[in-house]
């Protein structure tokens, strides 16, 4: 019995003339309308925008934290099954016998630069250090933060956030798009990935909605990445020049100020628009190759002058620990702890003070000593053993707050980033097998991320653990930790200055790569999957992306906010949620497509044998 042919007649209606010639007017206007409204809101009422975004973000985290955690675990296991099945894994994304468009070196360097380049520069030291001090094992009281015993659990969650799960998110989107584009000759756009489920409905308004969700998620995901990167760029310039006008000097440690952030953003985005105008074949490819070379030099510096033996020992033990805990890390989700649940867990002596105790006991970013010092009145007079029991009663709340504020933030960030990275991976992966795509884009870059985290982060931890840094690295802002680690590791001199300058250049090229790739991807969606889009549209989206980042950075400093990234992060998590649901449907659609294609192949083989 023959199997019905798949639906491939996807049509994205495009304008035949005018400014939007060869672009979808509906997608462009809907996407730009949402972004312009966000920019105007943040520009005219920054305090209101910051407050509302923060409140809505926390409400969504309370309701959807478990959804984010569990669906990312499903993504990882889904890809493992697809890669391991012989018939699906060997399928070529292209015509039979077609060779890959890019060499392995260029392919890997492009995916690395676009996928996690900026994130690694900012968090290769900040993430291990932060998780060394606070992670679920520390919150449970099993080990003390910033101790030798906390290193294993700290790296367990570091590998979780930057490992196979993170890249699985990108590959779910990328594999779906590449499969339909290169095996069914369909447009390289988000709606193509849902055609096995919705067929012709993707030609209409539903298809526009799916593409707009992809564009909005892309803008917000790229915005957060560029926001972190620009902050580190300014920290690097400050480390080189000492120019205080770029910095906010009012806190415990210098941090990039609003003027510095906006100035750095203008420089980076100007360069990225120029690069995007040159096209993926020139600008992105050449910058990606430069990124990889400079990255190797930076890693070599840490290998030679850093704590390499400590790093490699940590890499091996952390990898084993990560794999052993892979299933629990994938699906262990926490929910918010209600006031009644907390009160019911308190010892009898503390029950009357439940309201006074709850806030401190459920604070994921506090400590027992901080909990005690924050109490007032009768609650502060309770015996230590009662307070310890009350603090233990708040552990479920602390675990939820930590997961929602750390792991779920990362999942939302990578999901918001996935239309951009997924489309980009699809564009550069024609001619590769499904198995090669999954292994190349999940396992290989994750292993490199692990190396960055253990070599750079391990050196920072070792300097603090042995007392050499004396708290200097821990006390620095997240975006400054790399430069403080270099200073502690290399002391001073011309070599330190040279490496710091190289890091600033590397951050700049990573930022430009991410931004111009994002601009190209947004225009690909607007044009219904076309790989070559008009220069004017790249410029417009580059300017709009700059406005989104700039206004939300300014809004983040209102209402007494110490972190200019807060409004950006809140907007990103909110914007990522609808696309998370789209990605879940992508997995169902791809499973159906692979199954039906296998049935067709078997039928054709049977007919040929007869």
Side by side, the strands of the main sheet go 1-2
Count up the helices: 26
**SSE-based structural type:** mainly alpha
Q: Could you tell me the mean pLDDT?
A: 88
H/E topology pattern = HHHHHHHHHHEEHHHHHHHHHHHHHHHH
Give the overall shape: globular
Helix content percent band: over 70%
End-to-end Cα distance, whole Å, is 14 Å
Rg result: 25 Å
What's the story with the biggest beta sheet? 2 strands, antiparallel
Low-confidence stretches: none
**How large is the share of residues in beta strands?**
under 5%
Report the strand count.
2
Question: Please, could you describe this protein's structure?
Answer:
With 610 residues, the protein is an all-alpha fold. 73% of the residues lie in helices and 1% in strands. It has 26 helices and two strands. Strands 1-2 form a two-stranded antiparallel sheet. β1 and β2 form a beta hairpin. α4 runs antiparallel to α20 and α21 crosses α23. The chain is globular, with a radius of gyration of 25 Å. The model has no long low-confidence stretch (mean pLDDT 88).
């Amino acid at each position: 019995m023959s199997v019905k042919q798949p639906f491939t007649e996807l049509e994205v209606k495009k304008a035949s003339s005018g400014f939007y010639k060869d672009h979808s007017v509906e997608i462009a206007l809907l996407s730009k309308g949402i972004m312009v409204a966000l920019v105007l809101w943040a520009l005219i009422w920054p305090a209101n925008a910051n407050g509302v975004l923060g409140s809505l973000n926390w409400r969504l985290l309370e309701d959807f934290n478990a959804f984010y955690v569990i669906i990312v675990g499903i993504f990882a296991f889904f890809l493992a099954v697809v890669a391991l099945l012989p018939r699906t894994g060997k399928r070529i994304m292209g015509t039979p016998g077609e060779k890959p468009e890019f060499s392995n070196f260029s392919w890997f360097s492009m995916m690395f630069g676009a996928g996690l380049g900026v994130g690694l520069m900012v968090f290769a030291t900040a993430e291990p250090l932060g998780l060394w001090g606070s992670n679920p094992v520390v919150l449970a009281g099993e080990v003390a933060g910033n101790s030798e015993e906390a290193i294993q659990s700290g790296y367990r969650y570091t590998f979780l956030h930057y490992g196979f799960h993170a890249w699985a998110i990108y590959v779910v989107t990328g594999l779906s798009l590449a499969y339909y584009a290169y095996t069914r000759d369909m447009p390289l756009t988000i709606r193509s990935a849902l055609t096995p489920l919705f067929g012709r409905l993707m030609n209409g308004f539903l298809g526009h909605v799916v593409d707009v969700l992809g564009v909005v998620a892309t803008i917000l995901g790229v915005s957060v990445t560029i926001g972190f990167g620009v902050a580190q760029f300014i920290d690097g310039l400050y480390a080189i020049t000492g120019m205080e006008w770029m910095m906010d000097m009012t806190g415990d440690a210098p941090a990039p100020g609003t003027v510095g952030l906006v100035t750095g953003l203008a420089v980076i985005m100007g360069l990225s628009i120029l690069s995007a105008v040159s096209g993926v074949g020139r600008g992105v490819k050449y910058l990606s190759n430069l990124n990889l070379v400079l990255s190797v030099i930076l890693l070599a510096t840490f290998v030679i002058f850093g704590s390499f033996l400590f790093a490699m020992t940590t890499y091996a033990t952390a990898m084993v620990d990560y794999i052993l805990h892979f299933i629990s890390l994938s699906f262990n989700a926490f929910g918010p702890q209600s006031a009644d649940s907390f009160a019911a867990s308190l010892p009898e002596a503390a029950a009357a003070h439940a309201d006074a105790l709850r806030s401190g006991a459920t604070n994921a970013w506090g400590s027992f000593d901080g909990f005690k010092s924050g109490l007032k009145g009768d609650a502060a007079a309770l015996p230590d053993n009662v307070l310890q029991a009350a603090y233990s009663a708040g552990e479920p709340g602390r675990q939820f707050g930590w997961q929602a504020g750390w792991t779920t933030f990362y999942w939302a960030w990578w999901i918001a980033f996935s239309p951009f990275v997924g489309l980009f991976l699809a564009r550069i992966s024609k001619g590769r097998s499904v198995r090669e795509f999954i292994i190349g884009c999940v396992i290989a870059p994750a292993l490199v991320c692990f190396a960055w985290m253990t070599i750079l982060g391990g050196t920072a931890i070792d300097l603090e653990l042995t007392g050499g840094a004396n708290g200097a690295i821990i006390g620095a802002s997240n975006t400054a930790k790399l430069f403080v680690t270099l200073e502690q590791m290399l002391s001073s001199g011309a070599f330190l200055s040279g490496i710091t300058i190289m890091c600033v250049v590397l951050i700049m090229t990573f930022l430009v790569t991410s931004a111009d790739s994002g601009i190209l991807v947004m225009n690909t969606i607007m044009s219904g999957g076309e790989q070559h889009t008009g220069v004017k549209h790249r410029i417009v989206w580059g300017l709009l992306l700059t406005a989104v980042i700039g206004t939300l950075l300014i809004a983040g400093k209102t209402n007494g906010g110490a972190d200019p990234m807060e409004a950006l992060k809140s907007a990103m998590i909110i914007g990522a949620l609808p696309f998370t649901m789209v990605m879940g449907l992508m997995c169902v659609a791809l499973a159906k497509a692979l199954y039906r294609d296998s049935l067709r192949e078997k039928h054709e083989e049977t007919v040929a044998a007869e």
